[in-house]
Write a structure and sequence with these properties.
Largest sheet: 11 strands, mixed
Helix content: 10-25%
Order of helices and strands: EEHEEHEEEEEHHEE
Shape: globular
Distance between the termini: 24 Å
Number of strands: 11
Structural class: alpha+beta
Number of helices: 4
Mean pLDDT: 90
Low-confidence stretches: none
Protein backbone atom coordinates (compact mmCIF):
# COMPACT_ATOMS: atom_id res chain seq x y z
CA UNK A 1 0.00 0.00 0.00
CA UNK A 2 1.33 3.40 -0.99
CA UNK A 3 2.40 5.56 1.97
CA UNK A 4 1.37 9.20 2.33
CA UNK A 5 3.73 11.82 0.96
CA UNK A 6 4.75 14.45 3.52
CA UNK A 7 4.41 17.88 1.90
CA UNK A 8 5.23 20.05 4.94
CA UNK A 9 5.97 19.53 8.62
CA UNK A 10 6.95 21.75 11.53
CA UNK A 11 6.38 21.53 15.31
CA UNK A 12 2.72 22.55 14.89
CA UNK A 13 1.26 20.94 11.76
CA UNK A 14 1.82 18.13 9.29
CA UNK A 15 0.57 18.38 5.70
CA UNK A 16 0.54 15.29 3.51
CA UNK A 17 -1.05 13.69 0.48
CA UNK A 18 -3.39 10.85 1.36
CA UNK A 19 -3.27 8.03 -1.19
CA UNK A 20 -6.55 6.64 -2.51
CA UNK A 21 -7.67 3.53 -0.64
CA UNK A 22 -6.37 4.44 2.82
CA UNK A 23 -8.97 5.50 5.42
CA UNK A 24 -8.30 8.53 7.60
CA UNK A 25 -9.31 6.55 10.69
CA UNK A 26 -10.59 3.01 11.23
CA UNK A 27 -11.64 0.80 14.11
CA UNK A 28 -10.29 -2.28 12.33
CA UNK A 29 -6.82 -3.00 13.77
CA UNK A 30 -5.86 -4.99 10.68
CA UNK A 31 -6.27 -2.04 8.29
CA UNK A 32 -3.67 0.77 8.31
CA UNK A 33 -5.10 4.28 8.37
CA UNK A 34 -3.67 7.76 8.04
CA UNK A 35 -3.78 8.46 11.75
CA UNK A 36 -1.78 5.36 12.71
CA UNK A 37 0.66 5.71 9.78
CA UNK A 38 1.45 9.32 10.67
CA UNK A 39 1.77 8.55 14.39
CA UNK A 40 4.34 5.91 13.50
CA UNK A 41 6.12 8.55 11.40
CA UNK A 42 6.23 10.89 14.41
CA UNK A 43 7.59 8.13 16.65
CA UNK A 44 10.36 7.43 14.16
CA UNK A 45 11.30 11.06 13.53
CA UNK A 46 10.90 12.33 17.11
CA UNK A 47 11.85 9.39 19.37
CA UNK A 48 12.75 11.68 22.30
CA UNK A 49 9.40 13.46 22.32
CA UNK A 50 7.59 12.67 25.57
CA UNK A 51 4.02 13.36 24.46
CA UNK A 52 2.89 12.26 21.01
CA UNK A 53 -0.06 14.27 19.74
CA UNK A 54 -1.76 14.12 16.34
CA UNK A 55 -5.26 15.44 15.67
CA UNK A 56 -7.47 14.81 12.65
CA UNK A 57 -8.72 18.21 11.47
CA UNK A 58 -10.75 17.18 8.40
CA UNK A 59 -11.45 14.00 6.47
CA UNK A 60 -11.40 12.49 3.00
CA UNK A 61 -13.39 9.42 1.97
CA UNK A 62 -11.31 6.24 1.80
CA UNK A 63 -11.28 6.01 -2.06
CA UNK A 64 -10.34 9.69 -2.42
CA UNK A 65 -6.76 10.95 -2.67
CA UNK A 66 -5.57 14.40 -1.80
CA UNK A 67 -4.03 16.99 0.50
CA UNK A 68 -4.74 16.89 4.24
CA UNK A 69 -3.46 18.81 7.27
CA UNK A 70 -3.07 17.30 10.73
CA UNK A 71 -2.40 19.19 13.97
CA UNK A 72 0.59 18.25 16.12
CA UNK A 73 -0.49 20.33 19.15
CA UNK A 74 -3.80 21.01 20.88
CA UNK A 75 -3.44 24.74 20.20
CA UNK A 76 -2.95 24.12 16.48
CA UNK A 77 -5.92 21.74 16.42
CA UNK A 78 -8.19 24.33 18.04
CA UNK A 79 -7.14 27.05 15.60
CA UNK A 80 -7.46 24.84 12.50
CA UNK A 81 -10.89 23.63 13.61
CA UNK A 82 -11.94 27.26 14.02
CA UNK A 83 -10.72 28.01 10.50
CA UNK A 84 -12.53 24.94 9.18
CA UNK A 85 -15.81 26.64 10.09
CA UNK A 86 -14.87 29.82 8.22
CA UNK A 87 -13.93 30.92 4.72
CA UNK A 88 -10.21 30.98 5.59
CA UNK A 89 -9.99 27.19 5.19
CA UNK A 90 -10.13 26.41 1.46
CA UNK A 91 -10.83 22.88 0.21
CA UNK A 92 -10.54 22.43 -3.55
CA UNK A 93 -11.27 19.27 -5.52
CA UNK A 94 -11.22 18.01 -9.08
CA UNK A 95 -13.62 15.31 -10.21
CA UNK A 96 -14.49 13.43 -13.37
CA UNK A 97 -18.26 13.17 -13.64
CA UNK A 98 -20.36 11.17 -16.07
CA UNK A 99 -22.50 13.41 -18.21
CA UNK A 100 -22.85 17.19 -18.11
CA UNK A 101 -23.76 19.60 -15.33
CA UNK A 102 -26.61 22.11 -15.84
CA UNK A 103 -24.18 24.98 -16.52
CA UNK A 104 -20.49 25.59 -17.14
CA UNK A 105 -20.19 27.02 -13.63
CA UNK A 106 -22.49 27.46 -10.69
CA UNK A 107 -23.34 26.72 -7.09
CA UNK A 108 -25.16 23.66 -5.78
CA UNK A 109 -27.18 24.26 -2.61
CA UNK A 110 -28.98 21.35 -0.99
CA UNK A 111 -29.82 19.74 2.34
CA UNK A 112 -28.26 16.38 3.20
CA UNK A 113 -29.04 13.79 5.83
CA UNK A 114 -26.76 10.91 6.76
CA UNK A 115 -27.88 7.32 7.27
CA UNK A 116 -25.47 5.81 9.79
CA UNK A 117 -26.69 2.26 9.14
CA UNK A 118 -25.67 2.30 5.46
CA UNK A 119 -22.96 4.97 5.73
CA UNK A 120 -24.58 6.95 2.95
CA UNK A 121 -26.14 10.39 2.64
CA UNK A 122 -29.06 11.64 0.58
CA UNK A 123 -30.68 14.89 -0.51
CA UNK A 124 -33.58 15.86 1.73
CA UNK A 125 -35.76 18.82 2.67
CA UNK A 126 -34.78 21.50 5.15
CA UNK A 127 -37.29 20.15 7.67
CA UNK A 128 -35.98 16.57 7.62
CA UNK A 129 -34.64 15.56 11.06
CA UNK A 130 -30.85 15.70 10.96
CA UNK A 131 -30.75 17.75 7.76
CA UNK A 132 -27.65 19.90 7.19
CA UNK A 133 -27.06 22.50 4.51
CA UNK A 134 -24.59 21.52 1.77
CA UNK A 135 -23.07 24.14 -0.53
CA UNK A 136 -20.38 23.86 -3.19
CA UNK A 137 -19.32 25.88 -6.20
CA UNK A 138 -18.05 24.31 -9.41
CA UNK A 139 -16.57 25.09 -12.81
CA UNK A 140 -16.41 22.71 -15.75
CA UNK A 141 -12.84 22.62 -17.07
CA UNK A 142 -13.17 20.16 -19.91
CA UNK A 143 -15.80 17.97 -21.60
CA UNK A 144 -15.04 14.69 -23.35
CA UNK A 145 -17.70 13.48 -25.77
CA UNK A 146 -16.90 9.76 -26.15
CA UNK A 147 -17.70 8.64 -23.53
CA UNK A 148 -19.42 11.74 -22.16
CA UNK A 149 -17.31 12.85 -19.20
CA UNK A 150 -16.69 16.24 -17.60
CA UNK A 151 -13.65 17.37 -15.64
CA UNK A 152 -14.89 19.67 -12.88
CA UNK A 153 -13.14 21.99 -10.44
CA UNK A 154 -14.98 22.18 -7.10
CA UNK A 155 -14.70 24.28 -3.96
CA UNK A 156 -16.51 23.10 -0.87
CA UNK A 157 -18.21 25.74 1.23
CA UNK A 158 -19.49 23.17 3.72
CA UNK A 159 -18.06 19.81 4.69
CA UNK A 160 -20.80 17.17 4.77
CA UNK A 161 -20.59 13.39 4.59
CA UNK A 162 -20.09 12.31 0.94
CA UNK A 163 -21.15 15.84 -0.05
CA UNK A 164 -19.57 16.11 -3.50
CA UNK A 165 -20.59 12.59 -4.45
CA UNK A 166 -24.23 13.09 -3.41
CA UNK A 167 -24.69 16.59 -4.83
CA UNK A 168 -23.10 15.76 -8.17
CA UNK A 169 -25.24 12.64 -8.53
CA UNK A 170 -28.36 14.67 -7.66
CA UNK A 171 -27.39 17.24 -10.33
CA UNK A 172 -27.32 14.48 -12.94
CA UNK A 173 -23.53 14.09 -13.10
CA UNK A 174 -22.42 11.25 -10.77
CA UNK A 175 -18.73 10.66 -10.24
CA UNK A 176 -16.95 8.06 -12.34
CA UNK A 177 -16.20 4.96 -10.25
CA UNK A 178 -18.62 5.81 -7.44
CA UNK A 179 -20.26 2.51 -6.53
CA UNK A 180 -22.50 4.12 -3.91
CA UNK A 181 -24.18 6.93 -5.84
CA UNK A 182 -23.62 6.13 -9.53
CA UNK A 183 -26.20 3.62 -10.91
CA UNK A 184 -23.70 2.31 -13.48
CA UNK A 185 -21.34 1.21 -10.71
CA UNK A 186 -23.84 0.08 -8.06
CA UNK A 187 -23.88 -3.54 -9.22
CA UNK A 188 -20.13 -3.78 -9.60
CA UNK A 189 -18.17 -5.35 -6.79
CA UNK A 190 -14.74 -4.55 -5.49
CA UNK A 191 -12.72 -1.39 -5.10
CA UNK A 192 -12.92 1.40 -7.67
CA UNK A 193 -10.49 4.35 -7.85
CA UNK A 194 -13.22 6.98 -7.69
CA UNK A 195 -12.33 9.98 -9.86
CA UNK A 196 -12.22 12.55 -7.07
CA UNK A 197 -9.10 14.29 -5.79
CA UNK A 198 -8.59 16.96 -3.11
CA UNK A 199 -5.94 18.71 -5.15
CA UNK A 200 -5.53 21.96 -3.16
CA UNK A 201 -5.77 23.05 0.45
CA UNK A 202 -5.33 26.55 1.87
CA UNK A 203 -5.39 27.83 5.45
CA UNK A 204 -3.55 30.19 7.80
CA UNK A 205 -0.73 28.72 9.86
CA UNK A 206 -2.15 28.29 13.39
CA UNK A 207 0.88 29.96 15.03
CA UNK A 208 2.48 32.34 12.52
CA UNK A 209 -0.74 33.32 10.72
CA UNK A 210 1.02 32.91 7.36
CA UNK A 211 -1.19 31.85 4.45
CA UNK A 212 -0.34 28.26 3.52
CA UNK A 213 -1.31 26.78 0.15
CA UNK A 214 -0.57 23.20 -0.88
CA UNK A 215 -1.37 21.65 -4.24
CA UNK A 216 -0.88 18.22 -5.77
CA UNK A 217 -1.46 16.43 -9.07
CA UNK A 218 -4.52 14.24 -9.51
CA UNK A 219 -3.94 10.72 -10.78
CA UNK A 220 -6.92 9.51 -12.78
CA UNK A 221 -7.40 5.94 -14.04
CA UNK A 222 -5.85 5.54 -17.48
CA UNK A 223 -9.26 5.21 -19.15
CA UNK A 224 -10.55 8.46 -17.61
CA UNK A 225 -9.00 11.45 -19.38
Amino acid sequence: MKKPEILFEDPHILVCKKPAGIPVQTRNPGIPDMESILKNHLRETSPSQKELYLAVVHRLDQPVEGVMVFAKTRKAAADLNRQLQSASFGKYYQAVVCGKLPAKSGTLTDYLVKDGRTNTSRICTKDTPGAKSAILSYEVIKIQEQPLLSLVDIRLQTGRHHQIRVQMAHAGAPLWGDNRYHPEFLSKRGYFPIALCAYKLSFNHPVTGKTMVFQTTCHWPQFVR
